[in-house]
Specification:
CATH superfamily: Class I glutamine amidotransferase (GATase) domain
Strand content: 25-35%
Number of domains: 1
Largest sheet: 9 strands, mixed
Number of strands: 13
CATH topology: Rossmann fold
Structural class: alpha/beta
Strand order of the largest sheet: 4-1-5-6-13-12-11-8-9
Radius of gyration: 17 Å
Helix content: 25-40%
Length: 244
């Protein structure tokens, strides 16, 4: 007779993958995800569902994306390269814009729209925050002003609004944020409010007070330090708890 005990099913957390030209273990192009993100979801009790970002030539089947998300309990929108500026009606492209991929863009924007409309719990990280802002009609600053003003390879303090979803998840109103971005929010998307800023005023956290489900977006990378910083891991814990 088996003595194994039943383990509750882990909530399935959709994690859109990123395209990679090559990896050390594969002979061809790959779709990948950051291990730190998957590990943070697993530590929180969730099961990361690596979602293929299929949108050939930048055209996405909205009904198919909605159908694929229907099996998921939550969504983690990860970081990545810059969004193509045309998505937020910019006629010109700044020279610093890099790693644009319209297939990836179209997929991430569709995931953001459908997840929020369906009330799925959503945690958006770095580019993920920017994708949500654009999906809701907002815009981005294509460049923050060059190397002296961008937030690349920077760990700096971020102040969070008291009582905000991010502050509650982190268990504090001040976090040390590991950042890697040269773009930031310009005009806010519909319904979004700022709940965290860096000392220079850069938007670092967004929320949807009137959203249908739990939602938090951070401009930094909580996965960088989540294994040793309970405040950062708390964001993933809150996502999975909302998805449970």
């Amino acid at each position: 007779m088996s003595t194994r005990t039943h383990t509750p099913t882990r909530p399935l957390i959709a994690l859109p993958q990123r395209f990679s030209a090559s990896t050390s273990a594969l002979r061809y192009e790959a779709v990948v995800t950051a291990r730190a993100l998957a590990d943070a979801v697993l530590r929180a009790g969730g099961e990361p569902f690596m979602m293929h970002p299929y949108a050939p030539e930048g055209r996405v089947d909205e009904a198919e994306v909605a159908d694929r998300l229907a099996r998921c309990d939550g969504v983690l929108l990860p970081g990545g390269g810059d969004l193509t500026p045309r998505w937020y009606s910019e006629a010109s492209v700044h020279e610093s814009v890099y790693d644009v991929d319209e297939e990836q863009d179209a997929f991430d924007l569709a995931v953001a729209r459908h997840a929020l409309a369906a009330g799925l719990p959503v945690l958006a990280v770095c580019r993920g925050l920017q994708a949500v802002n654009v999906a809701l009609g907002g815009t981005l600053r294509q460049d923050m002003g060059g190397p002296d003003r961008e937030h690349r390879h920077v760990v700096h303090p971020v102040r969070l609004e008291s009582g905000s979803a991010v502050a509650r998840a982190a268990g504090t109103e001040r976090v040390d944020a590991s950042c890697f971005h040269h773009q930031c929010v310009d005009r806010l998307g519909d319904g979004l409010v700022v709940t965290g800023r860096a000392a220079d005023g850069t938007v670092e956290a967004l929320e949807l007070p009137d959203g249908r489900g739990w939602f938090a977006a951070v401009q930094w990378h909580p996965e960088d330090t989540a294994a040793k910083d309970p405040a950062q891991q708390g964001l993933f814990d809150a996502l999975v708890a909302a998805a449970s």
